[in-house]
Design brief:
Vanillyl-alcohol Oxidase, Chain A, domain 3; eight-stranded antiparallel β-sheet; binds flavin-adenine dinucleotide; Uridine Diphospho-n-acetylenolpyruvylglucosamine Reductase, domain 2
C-alpha cells in the first residue's frame, strides 16, 4: 500500500511505501533498525512545510507528531528540552505558560522545531541568528542505532546545526529561551535611498527589522519591533491586524484580485499599488506579546524562493532586482520581504560567517490559475548568484552543486561527514542527491583520522 504526504503548498506529494507515527524512542529505534538491516531509505517529515521535496522518500516516512513530549523546563537556565516532534506553536504555548519566550521567530507558526532547524529557519534582527543558533544541545540517532549527543561548542554542533535531514533522526532538543517579552511594532514608509543611508543605524538600534517592498513600485515600508514594558494593545487591535488586514485584505481580497491577472497578467501592477497604498503608506504602531507580533497569517497557498545575500549588498541587490523585473516584464506579486540575520558558524547555514539580508519573493497558488512564475524565480536565482547569495534550504532552489561548493567553504566537509555518519545513505533522497558532493575514499579516511577516534567517536 502506498501512503501520501503533501507539502503545505500542495506543490508536491511524497508517496512512501510505509508511513510511521512512532510514539516512543523504542518504537522509533525499532523502525530504524529494520530499515537499516534492509538498507532501506528512511526520511522524517516535520510538518511538511518545505516548498521543495526535502523530506520525500519512496520507502519509509516517519512523522514524529506523536513523539512530542516536553521533557524538562529549566526556568533558572531558561531552557526547554523536548522530543523532536514538538511543533513551534506547542513550544510557544508551553513557553507562554512558563513566562518565557523564544527570542526570535519566523512568520509561520506551524513548523516543527526540528524540521525548521534542519533547513536554517530564521526570523529577522541583525543581533539574532537562525533558529538553530538557539539550540543548546540535541540528540541525533544514526542509522547504526548509535545516538550522538551534540552540544553548543562541539565541532559537530557547527557541522549539523543545519543538517538538511541528511544524517539521521534528531530525537531530542534543548532550546534556549528568554523571559517572556512584549514587542512594540512600528511600521513607516521609507524610500530605498533613505533605507540605504540609515541601514546600519536602523539595524543596530532596533531588535527586529524588516523591509517590505511592493514590486513594480518604489514603495517600501520599514517594519521595526523592539522589546517594551508598555501595556499591550487591546485584543480588538490584534484581531483587526490579523483578521481584517492579514486574512481578509492581504489573503482573501488579494487572492480574488489576482484572478483578474488571468485575463491580463500585468494587472498585478495596479493590484500591488493598491496594496501598497493600503499597507505601506501609513505609520502605525502595535504592542503585543512577541509571538503575536512575529506571526503572520498564511491562508493562501504559495510558492517561494528566498536568498541570503551579504548585508552590504541589500540595496544594490534590490535595485538590480527591480531592473530585472521590469526589463523582463515579469509580473511579480506583493510583497517582496527583506529580513536580516546574524552570522553563525553552521557549515550549511545561508548566514555562514556573514551577516546576511534574506530576500524572499513568492507567487500565490490559486485554483484554476496557471503557474507562470518559474522563469521569474530562475532569473532571480541567477541574479542572486552574481552576489554570491545562498538559497533557503526549505524553499525552491535552482543552484548547481558547483555553485553551492563555491559559496559554502565547508561544503565538501559536510558531505564527507554525511558519508561517515550515514555510510549506507539511509537518509539520502533524490532532492539531496541532486546537489550532494560525492567524496573520495581518501578524503573520508583523512577526515576520520582528524575528527574521529578509533571507535568512530567524534573527537572534541
Ligand atoms: C507559509 C510558510 C511560511 C514560512 N515562513 C518562514 C519564515 O518565516 N522563515 C523561514 O526561515 N522559513 C519559513 N518557511 C520555511 C519553513 O520554515 C521550512 O521549510 C521548514 O523547514 C519547515 O519545517 P517543517 O517542520 O515543516 O519541516 P519539513 O518541511 O517537514 O522538513 C524539513 C527537513 O527537515 C527534516 N526533518 C524534519 N524533522 C526531522 C528530524 N526529527 N530529524 C531529522 N530530520 C528532520 C526533513 O526530513 C526535511 O529534510 C515558511 C514556509 C511556509 C510554508
Amino acid at each position: 500500500m502506498t501512503h501520501s504526504w503533501q507539502n503545505w503548498a500542495t506543490l508536491s506529494e511524497c508517496k512512501p511505501q510505509s508511513l510511521y507515527f512512532p510514539k516512543s524512542i523504542t518504537e522509533l529505534k525499532q523502525i530504524l533498525v529494520e530499515a537499516s538491516i534492509n538498507k532501506e531509505n528512511i526520511k522524517v517529515v516535520g510538518h511538511g512545510n518545505s516548498y521543495n521535496t526535502n523530506f520525500h522518500t519512496k520507502r519509509s516516512l516517519l512523522s514524529l507528531k506523536e513523539f512530542n513530549t516536553i521533557l524538562e523546563t529549566d526556568i533558572n537556565n531558561q531552557t526547554v528540552t523536548f522530543e523532536s516532534g514538538l511543533s513551534i506553536p506547542d513550544l510557544v504555548n508551553h513557553c507562554n505558560d512558563k513566562n518565557i519566550a523564544l527570542s526570535n521567530l519566523g512568520t509561520n507558526m506551524f513548523d516543527n522545531v526540528a524540521g525548521a532547524c534542519a533547513t536554517g529557519h530564521h526570523g529577522s534582527g541583525i543581533n539574532f541568528g537562525i533558529l538553530s543558533s538557539f539550540i543548546e544541545s540535541f540528540d541525533l540517532l544514526l542509522g547504526s542505532g548509535k545516538v550522538l549527543t551534540v552540544h553548543n561548542g562541539d565541532w559537530l554542533y557547527d557541522a549539523l546545526g543545519v543538517h538538511l535531514g541528511a544524517f539521521g533522526i534528531i530525537t531530542k532538543m534543548t532550546i534556549k529561551t528568554e523571559p517572556r517579552f512584549k514587542l512594540k511594532q512600528t511600521v513607516f514608509p521609507i524610500s530605498l535611498q533613505a533605507f540605504n543611508d540609515s541601514m546600519k543605524t536602523i539595524l543596530a538600534a532596533n531588535d527586529h527589522v524588516k523591509l517590505i517592498w511592493a514590486p513594480h513600485t518604489q514603495d517600501y515600508q520599514c517594519w521595526i519591533a523592539n522589546r517594551t514594558n508598555e501595556p499591550n494593545d487591546s485584543p480588538f487591535i490584534h484581531w483587526k491586524n490579523k483578521t481584517i488586514n492579514g486574512l481578509l485584505i492581504n489573503n482573501i481580497l488579494h487572492g480574488l484580485l489576482l484572478y483578474t491577472t488571468k485575463i491580463k497578467p500585468s494587472l498585478v501592477r495596479p493590484i500591488n499599488k493598491w496594496l501598497s497604498n493600503y499597507f505601506l503608506k501609513g505609520k502605525t504602531q502595535c504592542i503585543g506579546w512577541s509571538d503575536q507580533i512575529f506571526y503572520l497569517p498564511h491562508l493562501l497557498k504559495q510558492d517561494a524562493v528566498e536568498y541570503a545575500i551579504p548585508i552590504k549588498h541589500t540595496t544594490s541587490f534590490l535595485q538590480d532586482l527591480h531592473s530585472l523585473i521590469e526589463s523582463h516584464s515579469f509580473n511579480v506579486q506583493f510583497p517582496i520581504e527583506v529580513r536580516f540575520v546574524k552570522k553563525d558558524n553552521f557549515w550549511l547555514s545561508p548566514a555562514y560567517q556573514s551577516d546576511m539580508c534574506y530576500i524572499g519573493t513568492k507567487s500565490h497558488l490559486l485554483p484554476f490559475m496557471p503557474k507562470t512564475y518559474l522563469a521569474y524565480f530562475k532569473a532571480v536565482s541567477h541574479l542572486v548568484e552574481t552576489y554570491k547569495g545562498r538559497f533557503h534550504w526549505g524553499k525552491q532552489n535552482y543552484s548547481s552543486p558547483k555553485y553551492l561548493e563555491s559559496v559554502y567553504p565547508k561544503w565538501k566537509d559536510f558531505w564527507i561527514l554525511q558519508n561517515i555518519l550515514d555510510p549506507n545513505g539511509l537518509f539520502m533522497n533524490d532532492w539531496l542527491t541532486s546537489f550532494a558532493h560525492t567524496p573520495s575514499k581518501t578524503d573520508i579516511e583523512s577526515f576520520k583520522k582528524v575528527f574521529f577516534d578509533h571507535e568512530l567517536q567524534p573527537t572534541s
